[in-house]
Design brief:
By secondary structure, the chain is α+β, with helices and mostly antiparallel strands. The chain is 13% helix and 23% strand. It has 5 helices and 10 strands; from the N terminus they run H-H-E-E-H-E-E-H-H-E-E-E-E-E-E.
Amino acid sequence: MALQHFAVDRNLCFDRQANYLPASDRSPFCEPESDELPVRYAALNLSDWDGVAVWARRAPDSQPLLRVLVGNKYTDDDISYLMYLQDQNEPRFCERSRECACVNGKDCQKWDDPGGGLPAGYYCGNPAADPLPGTISGAGVQAANSCNITQCNQVYPAFPGNGPDPQFKDRPCTPHAFRGGGQSSYCFDPASDPPPAESDQGCGDHWTFPLHLTTEWQLFLVPFTTMSQQGWAKRWSFFDTSSVSVVRLTWDAGWVDYWIDNLRFYRVRR
């Protein structure tokens, strides 16, 4: 759940014309006027709250692990995207990149008439022999099976109404090797764009805590103080809860059958 839905859609911080409300009308959860507009638009100040509460259980044959993640302006891809929209030259808290090579082991080829409602473009596979991209699991697979300029011109999923993602739109699909030795192809123009961010500058490594579900309903209280980053993207020395922008539930690959209710933030009575 993106907290933008509360700041904007529930009109806690913005009116219906997307104007930041005057201080007298704003919720105490809103970001201060001194913060960047994308932060005010997408985050809430939860400094007075202690953590995440959620009721959950699993079915008998489901794996037990469920993770609770909380992101803020320092780790959130959405805020990085909004900051790029506002001013691409301003520094961002973390950086996004977009891979445009095939990740399914197939070649990237031009499909002139894919069929199935797909536009002509570059997809992973042989148009003479392989099934239509995306026909197995719908739009998610379709996006994963595009490549080259077709992948670069995809929308940013959180804001599909904005059209192709301007950070990658019409960029060539360029091979790039990272300093750690990993290499692939990414949407950037070496003549005008900086290279893709190294992993220690990337977005997405939110603060997390694992829950182990049983077959009985249980209330889990996850204090912010017990959450930590996993270490695969940009690291921060502290978890700043004054700019929380997203709460997310994730799990490992495998069979899952979870029941979840009443996900909310809580605070201890003092």
